[in-house]
Amino acid sequence: MNREALERVLAEAECLADEARVLAAIDAMGHVIAQDLRELNPLVLTVMTGALIPAGLLLARLHFPLQMDYVHASRYGGATIGSELRWLAKPRTPLAGRHVLLIDDILDTGLTLAAIIAWCREQGAASVRTAVLCEKPDARQPGGLAKADYVGLTIPNRYVFGYGLDYQEYWRNAPGIYAVKGL
After folding, report:
1. Which of 3, 39, 46, 117 has its CA 20 to 30 Å from the CA of residue 91?
2. Which of 104, 105, 108, 166 is catalytic?
3. Which residues of 88-104 are buried (b: 16+ CB within 10 A; e: fewer)?
4. Residue 108 catalytic?
């Protein structure tokens, strides 16, 4: 996809949440997470690549000791429709006995997060909580995670990008949450 086409996607997109609204949602999530996890010595796992930006912003709001690592698992690989989960990287930090917070960019079908949660439990995590920047309640599929523990924004079931969410592996850096025109 060429630069002009990519710029047109952003120019024609509908802004569902501007930068101020996204940051306010992250502030609110950070406040609640801090209350819930401050005493638990949590291990925070960022689900790559989409959660990189939300996790960075959220972690800066958690003013207590924690450890961080990441997982890289994907059902999409740049596509708009998910398939079988592929593990690209598992955390190096042992999960046994740990209180884990998974941070992801979006909860849509719920299948990816459900699989990662199951894996964390298999590794002996004492508890697993989830934080997502965005959720699409109308996109859930059977067997998927029904609800995240911490949700920043609820958005319609459309193809979205920005703040970590991608449009064909581009525009993760867009300064808001945008819906692609016509999708």
Report:
1. 39
2. 108
3. eebbeeebeebbbbbbb
4. yes
